[in-house]
Amino acid sequence: xxxxxxxxINIQFFTAIPVNAALPMDQxxxxxxxxxxxxxxxxxxGLYIFLYYAVLQWTPFSALTAAFVLWLAGILITGGIHLxxxxxxxxxxxxYRDREKRLEIMNDPRVGAFGVLSVLVLLxxxxxxxxxITQQVEPWSYFLAGLIPFFSKTVMGVLxxxxxxxxxxxxxxxxxxxxxxxxxxxxxxxxxIVLSAGIAFHQAWMGVILFAVVSALMLPVFKxxxxxxxxxxTGDLLGASTEGTELVLWMILWLFHYFAMV
Length: 262
Known about the structure:
- The protein is mainly α and 262 residues long.
- The protein has one domain.
- Helix content is 77%, strand content 0%.
- The protein has twelve helices and no strands.
- The protein starts with a helix and ends with a helix.
């Protein structure tokens, strides 16, 4: 099944989960891969929340331990692929060079000081939000936390097709050339499905709508900044956008616990 093979391509490329299969990398299967970006996010989110729930509910360990397990799972299951993009993009942006030089810096396999500092800030902020949420976790908290990778992968897919590429080679260009606007038609269907599921949880549907609105608002911001700073999309910038989206959504979920549920 081409849809399933497209999903397996995503798992092979964007996670550390072993897929011991030689998958076709033709345009048709890569297009299915882009179409299933949000499904990959749901799988990731499901794994994260299973581990999170298991530590909180089935072990004697503390909330700090559960927060750490969830935080670490986000790094290990993805293999840090998007964090690599975040660091490369940070090094390039904070160099304050012209576009061509920034693209050259992103291609450099070495990590500079700005990349290290930026990933420390990112991971520290994410852990803070997760720990604070864990202190006042509700049944719907698991559901919404599990949707964060879903929305970040949705943003990744839209940016991939709506922002022109800065390079003609690389991982981003490979997926970008295989897909088209029709690929995105499934994305609203996915959102409606998770919204319907959210109705089953007390007030979780409000969080789903909030996540969808915030993600949609971030799209034009990302597009304008990526084109203005780098001249177009690259694989590293897709990874950085994914990490940035997840950080913002963790912050939204943190605030949601404080202000929306009183």
